[in-house]
Design goal:
By secondary structure, the chain is α/β, with parallel strands linked by helices. The chain folds into 6 domains: 63 residues, no CATH class; 174 residues, P-loop containing nucleotide triphosphate hydrolases (Rossmann fold, 3-Layer(aba) Sandwich); 65 residues; 204 residues, no CATH class; 227 residues, Rossmann fold; 134 residues, Endonuclease, Chain A. The protein has 35 helices and 34 strands. Helix 1 crosses helix 18, helix 24 crosses helix 25 and helix 25 packs antiparallel against helix 35.
Length: 1069
């Protein structure tokens, strides 16, 4: 899905009917239930063999699958019958049914660059009546249609353009669009266009025109879609996260993480222990240093002891002297205070005496008090004075007595108080450091003991396994634990949003239904207003609005590929003109098998023939003789050589080259035969029916040619007669093609009708052993042989530049005279260049001078083949089997081996197969059963026992001839070498890589059905069981010997049983 909402579907190998769009659904791998299951496409666009389907952007499908509800096989025919019942038996349809064609126009309208025949065909489109135009490939039918439609638009006519194929409709419509004579809505393409230029043109594509007219409804749908898209993001994130943690087990991861962490901790814990030891040693050293510092500080403090004692004694003497001095000073102060009081009292007494006698008599009491007070104060002064003298005398005596003691003590003082205090501080700091160092040492010892215990515990625990280490490394690299938590959160959110999403999806579905209803109304309106309606015949019969018309002119292209009834239905819609263009020498309509095998005359006339046959035209002479049929004979697509082949095979020399046709030189061949003779098993057709089959050579060479020309920017188509070969080629191409690239178109001729390519590869699937369809193709015989001629003609005439034929030159040279291959046999070695496939695949043992001179083209092709194929020419057995042993040793899932006989080589291969079985590789070996004259020998049976003992599943087969080895469903060894018996013989083995091709080989060989060991015989209990292919498919058969009483001759048990599960026998397809 390159763009949001868009899915690309590879139509190669499928039978999807893009015209039945209403039945298409996009869902998961399980089929949608009912008509409303899955998601309906919003748009469908076909580009070659790739279908692009758009659904709503919010659609979230892990494995998106396009499903189509199949209509009953006869649905379209029943619908055709219903509509034809309403057609009146008059008008142009009645004329056509009766074979009444209008004659050629008398006056021709001239168009620049047109031949007279083209002018006649062009004029027929503008004149009344019904006419035929026989136009072989490259004769300008599409150009005639484009010019005619443009003119009809200019004349105001309403035109219905129909064809059996989408590509034919688009080619004609594209030509009209290039004229640019129309207005928007004049031209309408109904149905899924094949060409992108039409699908994306807003003025022509019905889808775009409807979208423009329903903008409001589309906006409502888009709004719901955007809301759903936002919810889808949660689901997308959840899916991405779930994918990332798909194999993440949290419990297992936790255990692994613990084990890994223990392992990772051992070096860390060992280092921690070493660090703890170093720390403990350092702490011990620090404590010793602290202890020494304390001892030194203590000694220093001890030296100050005498000085401190003397200083203390001196301080005591000083304190005593100070106290004595303080006492003397205190008494002296009291003495001074007493004297001052005494002086005040004497002054007061003198003042009291200074008055006269009367005053003294009046103050006699105060005088007496003052006299008494003065007396007391004088006594106090005297006493204190005596005390002061006494104390001074005592102080003097103390000083005299202390002087010798102070002198002696001062002599003892060696350190000052500051020095003593400093040494005390040093001691205190040293003691603090010592205490801290002791604490740190204790902590270091504890940490060392703990680290030692942790290390011992980690070393004693189980070690992490390599798987646990890988698990943890991946979890760390992708952050899986965090992603797991995110996933849990997203799951909760998604669960919470689920109801909203469900509701919105229902609303969107309703909006889609409303849009569909409005779309149908809008389509009907737009179709009724258009001047030109372009669609397919299949869609015409199922759409009432298309049938309603009316149309002035109906133009039917590729009418040879349409049934008569659907052509008559289209013509019945015309009121004036109907022109039918086609080529009766191309392939006819595709019909259900019951109809093609019906013997009823009416069925053969009206359904198994085409419109040309209805009008009596079956060969070129009939067409040129019929006045109602214009014959276009000037060919513009391919060159002279291909035109010569087409003339010889189908057109009886009618075609002539346009004047500007390029003449090619000898080094640029237009037709190249890749001769598959002498390719051995690679070039042998595997039968899938009486006259059909498939072969590896075609798939391989087609892939190389596709790469060669696609690298040059050329378009290429691979055409083959059979679906099994188309499937094999398709798978080979898918191994090379890049995802998203435009795929190489592959299929049977029906898929290519109306198409053209620069290069066409026609894989004939014809070896030199048996004639098949193309080898039997002939114009002189009807039915199967004539259809083969038409198939060949379609394939040959699709190319513009070069045609490749892949097949046996011997088969072509030996072709019977009346066959298609007989027509090209005379051109071999002349206009047809032959390249021998065996020369393209040259073994490495061939010396450079002996290698074939292939020319520039062939050398390039050989180089490309070498990219896909390695050639092992078995001349040196040891060298090959060394390489083969390496292939077996590289096997991881499965080994499938087909080897006819178990000779002595088995002894050297069996050990490698046994080793593969022991690795869990599924090994299955197919060999012939013991009834084969070589495999039944005692030596071969003993070797078979050796092989069984090695362990692989052994499946014995009756008349097996394959020589194949497939390893891991990707590597294929294919050729003439029997890997269990080869000895001293020159063999070639091709080694091809590619899953798709390998799976195709296994599918063809029915490998999946034989994965289990053969059963035990229910009749005799023997294990001698072999596979038989019968007319009814594969069966197990017991070939154990038994003797019956009535018959003494040896016979086999004969018990049979069907293998479990369905066997897809290609012969019954």
């Amino acid at each position: 899905m390159a763009e949001a909402g868009w899915y690309s579907v590879d139509l190669r190998g499928s039978r999807t009917d893009v015209d039945q769009l209403d039945t298409l659904r996009v869902a998961g791998t399980a089929p949608p239930r009912g008509a409303e299951g899955g998601y309906r496409p919003l748009e469908v666009m076909q580009e070659g063999q790739q279908l692009r389907v758009r659904v709503a952007d919010f659609v979230d499908l892990a494995d998106a699958t396009l499903w189509q509800q199949r209509q009953p096989p006869a649905y379209l025919l029943d619908r055709l019958r219903e509509v034809l019942a309403t057609v009146k038996p008059v008008g142009l349809a009645a004329d056509l049914a009766a074979g009444r064609l209008a004659p050629a126009p008398q006056m021709l309208d001239r168009v620049a660059g047109f031949t007279p025949a083209q002018c006649e065909a062009y004029t027929s489109c503008l004149r009344p009546g019904v006419r035929l135009v026989w136009g072989p490939p490259g004769t300008g039918k599409t150009r005639v249609l484009s010019e005619a439609i443009s003119s009809l638009i200019a004349d105001g006519k309403r035109v219905l353009l129909v064809s059996a194929t989408n590509i034919a409709v688009d080619n004609a419509l594209a030509g009209v669009m290039r004229h640019r004579r129309h207005r928007p809505g004049d031209l309408i393409r109904v149905g899924p266009p094949h060409l992108r230029e039409i699908a994306t043109d807003p003025d022509v594509s019905l889808t775009h025109l409807v979208k423009t007219s329903l903008a409001e409804a589309e906006q409502r749908r888009l709004t719901l879609q955007n809301r759903l898209l936002a919810l889808k993001q949660t689901v997308n994130d959840l899916r991405t996260t779930e994918k990332l943690v798909a194999d993440f087990n949290p419990s297992e991861h936790q255990r692994a993480r613990a084990a890994v962490n223990r392992d990772r901790d051992i070096p860390r814990l060992a280092q921690q222990l070493a660090n703890a030891g170093d720390q403990m040693t350092a702490r011990r050293r620090a404590l010793a240093q602290a202890d020494a510092a304390v001892q030194e500080a203590r000694a220093a403090v001890a030296e100050t002891s005498d000085s401190r004692t003397a200083l203390d004694a001196l301080d005591g003497i000083r304190r005593e002297a100070t106290l004595a001095q303080q006492e003397v000073d205190r008494v002296a102060v009291r003495l001074l205070a007493a004297r001052a009081e005494c002086d005040r009292t004497e002054s007061d007494l003198a003042s009291a005496r200074d008055g006269g006698p009367w005053a003294r008599a009046r103050n006699w009491r105060q005088l007496n008090r003052l006299r008494g007070l003065l007396q007391e104060q004088r006594e106090t002064v005297e006493t204190l004075g005596a005390q002061v003298q006494h104390d001074k005398a005592l102080l003097a005596r103390f000083h005299r007595s202390a002087e010798p003691q102070v002198a002696a003590l001062t002599a003892k003082v060696r350190f000052s108080r500051e020095q003593i205090a400093a040494r005390g501080s040093v001691l205190a700091e040293a003691q603090r450091i010592h205490h801290a160092a002791a604490a740190e040492l204790s902590a270091a010892v504890n940490e060392h003991d703990a680290a030692q215990q942790r290390l011992l515990a980690a070393e004693a625990a189980p070690r992490a396994t390599p798987e646990q280490q890988t698990l943890v490394e991946r979890a760390d690299r992708h952050q899986l634990p965090a992603q797991y938590e995110r996933m849990q959160s997203l799951r909760r959110r998604a669960a919470a949003e689920a109801p909203t999403r469900s509701r919105l999806e229902k609303e969107h579905a309703k909006a889609h239904d409303d849009y569909d209803r409005l779309r149908r109304d809008a389509e009907s309106t737009l179709i009724r207003q258009a001047r030109v309606i372009a669609t397919t015949l299949a869609r015409l019969r199922t759409a009432t609005v298309l049938l309603d018309g009316p149309y002035d002119v109906v133009l039917v292209d590729e009418v040879g590929a349409a049934t008569i009834p659907e052509t008559l239905l289209a013509v019945s819609r015309a009121t004036t003109t109907a022109v039918l263009l086609g080529d009766f020498m191309q392939l006819g309509p595709v019909l259900p098998t019951p109809i093609t095998k019906s013997k009823r005359p009416d069925v053969q006339r009206w359904l198994c023939d085409d419109i040309f046959g209805l009008c009596g035209i079956t060969v070129a002479a009939d067409a040129t003789a019929n006045p109602g049929c214009t014959v276009l004979d000037e060919q513009h697509r391919f060159g002279h050589d291909i035109m010569h082949v087409a003339n010889a095979v189908a057109y009886d020399g009618l075609l002539r080259a346009a004047p500007n046709t390029r003449v090619r030189d000898a080094d640029d061949p237009e037709i190249v035969l890749i001769d598959t003779d002498r390719l051995g098993d690679l070039g042998t057709v595997r039968a899938t029916g009486p006259s059909k089959g498939w072969w590896p050579a075609g798939a391989l060479i087609s892939r190389a040619l596709a790469q060669y020309h696609r690298s040059r920017g050329e378009t290429l188509g691979v055409i083959t007669p059979y679906n099994p070969q188309a499937d094999a080629t398709l798978e080979a191409l898918r191994d090379w093609e890049e995802t998203g690239a435009h795929p190489t178109e592959v299929g049977t001729a029906h898929r290519f009708q109306g198409r053209e390519f620069d290069v066409v590869v026609l894989d004939l699937v014809e070896d030199n052993a048996k004639s098949r369809w193309i080898a039997q193709a002939s114009s002189s015989r009807g039915g199967f042989a004539r259809e083969g001629l038409r198939l060949f003609n379609v394939a040959v005439t699709r190319t513009k530049d070069r045609l490749y034929l892949i097949g046996s030159r011997q088969r072509i040279e030996q072709a019977p005279p009346d066959t298609v291959l007989a027509c090209i046999a005379p051109l071999l070695g002349k206009t047809i260049r032959t390249v021998r496939a065996e020369q393209l695949i040259t073994a490495p043992s061939v010396p450079e001078p002996d290698r074939p001179l292939l020319g520039e083209f062939s050398n390039d092709l050989a180089d490309i083949l070498a990219q896909h194929v390695r050639v092992a020419e078995i001349q040196d057995e040891k060298a090959f089997y060394r390489t083969f042993a390496e292939y077996l040793e590289s096997a991881r899932h499965s080994i499938w081996m087909w080897a006819t006989w178990t000779a002595n080589r088995t002894k050297s291969v069996a050990p490698a197969l046994g080793a593969a079985v022991e690795r869990g590789v599924k090994v299955v070996v197919f060999v012939r059963d013991a009834r084969d004259h070589l495999q039944g020998t005692d030596n071969s049976q003993q070797n078979l026992k050796t092989l069984r003992a090695a362990g692989p599943t052994i499946v014995e087969m009756y008349k097996m001839h394959q020589k194949i080895v497939v390893i891991d469903e990707r590597l294929v060894l294919l050729g003439s070498l029997n890997v269990l018996s080869q000895r001293q013989s020159r063999e070639v083995m091709l080694v091809m890589e590619g899953a798709h091709f390998a799976r195709k080989i296994l599918e063809h060989e029915n490998a999946a059905q034989f994965r289990q060991a053969p059963p035990t015989c229910e009749a005799c209990g023997s294990t001698t069981i072999a596979l038989h292919r019968t007319a009814k498919g594969w069966r197990w058969r017991c070939y154990a010997r038994s003797l019956t009483p009535s018959d003494t001759r040896s016979s086999t048990c004969g018990w049979t049983a069907e293998p479990e599960g369905p066997i897809n026998d290609a012969r019954n397809q």
